[in-house]
Amino acid sequence: xxxxxxxxxxxxxxxxxxxxxxxxxxxxxxxxxxxxxxxxxxxxxxxxxxxxxxxxxxxxxxxxxxxxxxxxxxxxxxxxxxxxxxxxxxxxxxxxxxxxxxxxxxxxxxxxxxxxxxxxxxxxxxxxxxxxxxxxxxxxxxxxxxxxxxxxxxxxxxxxxxxxxxxxxxxxxxxxxxxxxxxxxxxxxxxxxxxxxxxxxxxxxxxxxxxxxxxxxxxxxxxxxxxxxxxxxxxxxxxxxxxxxxxxxxxxxxxxxx
Length: 258
Fold this sequence. Notes:
- Pfam families: 4HBT_2.
- This protein is of the alpha+beta class.
- The protein has helices at residues 2-21, 24-40, 70-88, 90-96, 163-172, 176-183, 202-210, 224-232, 238-255, and strands at 50-55, 100-110, 119-129, 133-142, 147-159.
């Protein structure tokens, strides 16, 4: 009996130590998120919108115990992003082609508090990509009426492989009919009065190509799948264009020592 007490006490101390050194529940939830996305949830087209559920717990609230801490929104995006990566096979495709992906920039706008013990959902989708980066939009929604509590845009930098090549392969995996269906959701990306043939501003192209280096060499001749991915690419939203400009200006200031 005494030996069992020592074993139980040792296990308790080990758990406390793990929680002290590591945010254990974060890693456990991340593992669960990967397993569910990989083996339980259905596969999604790369241009579909994925959804994950969340709950504001007591360890998520601000010091005033009134609403979810602002920093927690970005942490919740980790789970939404992993779910999207796994269900669309985006991450596995990047790794198989010899590339790597990391977050290069993010912006967030808060509209209304998420209260303690309030449920929410996060909708994630791709809104644009260039040769080096993938731009994702995440929305925190209230399930009852789909009110948008918060909206975030994240830039995922891809190195050692052109993003157009990755998207071409992912788009080629899905039949054209399914692709057209999923692309119907991208109509909301276009501002009122802007058609799908709106050209992308040159400044956005330059900004997207200059950030963070690691420019992958373009192939000598575009393949049919690459041409198809360009055709399927959504138009560049004007607010995203401005954000790309801001990031490029910030990079120039930092390189010049400002």
